[in-house]
Amino acid sequence: MKTAIIGYGKMGREIEKILLERGHQIGLIIDQENASDLDSKHLQGIDVALEFTTPQTAYDNIRRCIDAGVAVVSGTTGWTDRLEELRRYCQEKGGAMFYTSNYCLGVNLMFRLNRQLAAMINRVDGYDVRLEEVHHTQKRDAPSGTAITLAEGILSELACKSGWVNRMAEPGSTFQPAPGDDPSQIVITSIREGMVPGIHTITYESEDDRIELKHTIKNRRTLAQGAVVAAEFLCGKQGVFSMDDLLK
């Protein structure tokens, strides 16, 4: 498989290592200094591009790959208000695209457990729910895409919640409801601390007990490996895919 890496930061470098370990070829690396090289000419012969950049550039990067007839795997978060638009565009062009907010297998298992737990809580009632996500200080978007996916999973099953709101907090702080919090909204607390790859915690609390569902990523390698596996899955296909399709 001949690949392109779009975004050569820490994640891009981890992806590079795993691609080479698995016997794949890297035909193009795009970063800020050569962003203009992301075109049909430079993408010629590329099977799959792996895109991990910024919320400001992801949409255009993915669209350029689709226009060049190159399958693209993206894990950039913070821009998904335009994701449906891009999915439709990909289908219209007969392209191939894979998107998920988190490529860690454990997180994707958590997505499923999260929906199941929310459905059970909906039947018994009496619990309120909140989310907390902790990431490194270089993460530019808040809340994380993973936290948004978790919130959407809860909203799909829990009748008493209709949306979510985000609140930034300092490291080490404990959750305290804010005056005027709308009880129909899930509060997502975002903390930016050190070099934390990612911690997501869902808490259900009643007057008598507390239930926590928590996932901790130990390093970026698990994310990079998931992205490469997604690229292998996508290679040679047409259509729009997610981790649900891969796990099936």
UniProtKB/TrEMBL annotation:
Dihydrodipicolinate reductase N-terminal domain mapped to chain residues: 1-102
Keyword Ribonucleoprotein among UniProt keywords: no
This protein's GO CC annotations: cytosol
Known catalytic reactions: (S)-2,3,4,5-tetrahydrodipicolinate + NAD(+) + H2O = (2S,4S)-4-hydroxy-2,3,4,5-tetrahydrodipicolinate + NADH + H(+); (S)-2,3,4,5-tetrahydrodipicolinate + NADP(+) + H2O = (2S,4S)-4-hydroxy-2,3,4,5-tetrahydrodipicolinate + NADPH + H(+)
GO molecular function: 4-hydroxy-tetrahydrodipicolinate reductase; NAD binding; NADP binding; oxidoreductase activity, acting on CH or CH2 groups, NAD or NADP as acceptor
Active site per database record: H135 (proton donor/acceptor), K139 (proton donor)
InterPro entries registered for this protein in UniProt: DapB_C, DapB_N, DapB_N_CS, DHDPR_bac, NAD(P)-bd_dom_sf
Record key words, sorted: Amino-acid biosynthesis, Cytoplasm, Diaminopimelate biosynthesis, Lysine biosynthesis, NAD, NADP, Oxidoreductase
Subunit structure: Homotetramer.
Functional summary from the UniProt entry: Catalyzes the conversion of 4-hydroxy-tetrahydrodipicolinate (HTPA) to tetrahydrodipicolinate.
Name of the protein: 4-hydroxy-tetrahydrodipicolinate reductase
Gene source species: Candidatus Alistipes avicola
Upper lineage: Bacteria, Pseudomonadati, Bacteroidota, Bacteroidia, Bacteroidales
Gene encoding the protein: dapB
